[in-house]
Amino acid sequence: MSGLFGVVSNENCAETLFYGTDYHSHLGSQKAGLAVLNSRLKRSIHNIATSQFKSKFIDELSELKGRMGVGVISDLEPQPIIISASFGNFALALNGFLVNKNQLVRKVMARGGSFSEVSSGQINAVEVIGKLIASRNNIVSGLEYFFNSMVGSASLLILAKEGVYAVRDKLGRTPLTIAKRGNKLAVASEDSSFANLGFKTIKQLLPGEIVLLTKNGLQEKIIGRKIEKICAFLWIYTGFPASTYNNQSVELVRERCGENLAKNDNIDADLVAGVPDSGIAHALGYARQSGFPYRRPLVKYSAGYGRSYTPPSQEIRNRVAKMKLVAVKEVIVNNRIVICDDSIVRGTQLKNQGINKLWQNGARQVHVRIACPPLMFPCRYCLSTRTRKELAARRILAKIIGRKITDREAGEYLNSKSSSYKKMVDLTGQELGASSLKYQTVEDMVTAIGLPRGKLCLECWLGREK
Ligand code: SF4
């Protein structure tokens, strides 16, 4: 996953670009980059795995002067990439993932192209896209050529002499929103990045739409499509609570998820809590619907860690996760607790840092409620979820069946009314050490999001939909 921000102005935009990009720090923890255009393109990229975006870029702001710029926070490639083309130089930033990257690499190489941005022995996907765009006569036809060749997902920002191009892939897996402040225009993955910078949203890009932000206004280059498969996981976990996508507020969707979980529940409890931070809004919805008080048996100590702090080794990551969540014994002792979380990927953090801490501090019961169905498939588009073997649901199914399961067999466990589904959920709950475990159903999750099911990507849960 990555977060994108771009701005076009009549004056130096470095500070707006800096803060706008920083508001995407929850979407990536490895690399960050800014590119600005004044008389020429200037770029800076840093590794942010062990320190925050702000601390890496603040000292460079005076050097990154320009009237237009793009910024990106990323979990994958170093970017933006600067490409030299017959129609001029441009800087390119990507939020997405190319499923057919190798095929596209061969396509570039067959035309005599080569690659320079090789990190960790891998060809940089952003450079591949840049080379494909540069192989045409102008940016718009280059983008059309790329989108007709690619499989995967890609929201892109391109900084060129004429302005900032913003574009979503044909199925619009990830959002981009345009906003205005006076004669400044901005574009962002998260529209929550606009408010404190004084920008007002003017439109969300449609799938396949290409627009150009210039100092004279917004130019429509290619009209968007109505067909869409926007990532449902944005609302459940990855998106920032203050954002909206397709006019659906992330925070309100999460509250509705919690309400749905409570409507389908029949337990008695003394309090409801969310695993900080991503389970909190789900828990608030559960508490409102159930009437049980919302309280905080687990609080997060984030001072000094920073939201984007990702230590280099798994061992240190586990230690940091353990240190961050602190139990409030006085709230826990002797209570029957409903604890809500967004999802279960591996389940180890939830068990070790959440459920176990509640038991160790004297909880009487610990009921786990999860805001989305069991994750059965890894994400092919933005890598928000990991490999098959990491997923807790797959691990449990392998235990039940006695061997690794196929995608078709995983699909058979998706019917939330079937006895095989119940068996899988009960066993997962036992492994977590919970008094009980329940997941939200696909149908309730779709209702909570508030968009027609056909407009959502649900592959994490259902696999590839025909
Ligand atoms: S597979 Fe999952 S995380 Fe990936 S785009 Fe679809 S819903 Fe989002």
Would you write up a description of this structure?
Helix 4 crosses helix 5. Helices cover 31% and strands 26% of the residues. The radius of gyration is 23 Å and the shape is globular. A hairpin with a 2-residue loop joins strand 9 and strand 10 (163-168). It starts with a strand and ends with a helix. The chain is an alpha+beta fold and 466 residues long. The protein has two domains: 2-228, 4-Layer Sandwich (Glutamine Phosphoribosylpyrophosphate, subunit 1, domain 1), CATH 3.60.20; 248-451, 3-Layer(aba) Sandwich (Rossmann fold), CATH 3.40.50. Iron/sulfur cluster (SF4) binds at residues 173, 231-233, 379, 381-382, 384-385, 457-460.
Features:
16 helices; 7-stranded antiparallel beta sheet; 466 residues; binds iron/sulfur cluster; 2 domains; alpha+beta; Glutamine Phosphoribosylpyrophosphate, subunit 1, domain 1; 6-stranded antiparallel beta sheet; Rossmann fold
What small-molecule ligands were found? iron/sulfur cluster
Q: Round the mean pLDDT to the nearest integer and report it.
A: 92
Distance between the termini: 24 Å
CATH superfamily of the largest domain: Aminohydrolase, N-terminal nucleophile (Ntn) domain
What strand line-up does the widest sheet have?
Answer: 3-2-4-1-12-11-13
Please state roughly what percent of the residues sit in beta strands, choosing from under 5%, 5-15%, 15-25%, 25-35%, 35-45% or over 45%.
Answer: 25-35%
Query: What's the total number of strands?
Result: 25
* Sheet with the most strands, sense and barrel status: 7 strands, antiparallel
So how many helices?
16
Q: What best-fitting shape do the alpha-carbon axes yield?
A: globular
Class of the largest domain in CATH? Alpha Beta
> What integer value in Å does the Rg equal?
23 Å
